[in-house]
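Lab notebook, bench 4. The sequencing result for the construct came back, and we need a structural model before the next group meeting so we can plan mutations. Quick request posted to the team channel:

Model the 3D structure of this chain.
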Amino acid sequence: MPELRKDPISDRWVIIATERGRRPSDFKEGGAGKITEGKFCPLCEGNESNTPREIIAWRKSGSEPNKAGWDVRVIPNKFPALVIEGEVNRTGIGIFDMMSGIGAHEVIIETPKHGETFVDMDETHIDKILWAYKNRITDLEKDKRFRYVLVFKNYGEAAGASLEHAHSQLIATPITPRYIKLELTNAREYFHDKERCIFCDLIRQEMGDGTRIVSENEYFVSFTPFASRFPFELWIIPRRHQHDFSIITDEERIQLARLLRETMLRLKKTLNDPPYNYMIHTSPNIVPRAGKPDYWGTVQYDFHWHIEVVPRLTKQAGFEWGTGMYICPTPPEEAAKYLREVKL
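Done. Here's the predicted structure in token form:
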């Protein structure tokens, strides 16, 4: 029988359509697909002059900025969604609010090698990518105009990637996005009522139950959410309470690289290299603001950063757009079992 399940963090209901019962083999047609095969790639090593000048890079000893000799490189997006120069200029037109399109939009080029995917890299290289994420979040949060920094990865054309070369992106915005605000608000209310972090309670419950756990190590755990929006959706979350991705230690970062690679490899093996998105949900920028001295002032106690991984296996249609609810045809317990048992 189908089930309606509620996610206590986002306050969102989903339908687990058990009667549709889709297995991994039902999703395997096509994979992520090729995007730029045979075309010029501006992100490849040696083509640095075809991109904006780098912001930071993990470089080999002796190599020069904006030249070959890098492992991971961060550049401004050549076609940014938001621009970094200017003031926010909050204003209104009648009941409508508006502001200037101020923000930051950057590209993290994950490897100099075209065709190398995330799971082809070893954990030491993925650690360098995570280092770049941390560095950029920390730096951008010094800018009082920016209230949130989202790091995300689009893999495969169906997931929104326009270039095949392995890369991820970040966008800093002058507002806290609605979905993030829902998580923050519900986590704060839960902490106010129970004096416990809702994410920490979730981790204890999932690890105690075990049916949705996919993998774990000393510092992190990956699992399929109880109220999964999408088949084979995954969360990766620190086992100890930690509200902000940018305070992750070097040891935690290498452990995250290890678990992230393993989790994505399980996804690739189970679903024949599906297109996917992943997003890092971290704390908003809590720098003091005029008129808002307590802006998310309790976030260090009630929020818990995490990574959400969404394989792009199904499409949203009228019901989803009309209600904001999702229909997931694979129960998360079954998805976790497939992912746990796949041979790596």
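The chain is about 25% helix and 20% strand.
Will bring this to the meeting.
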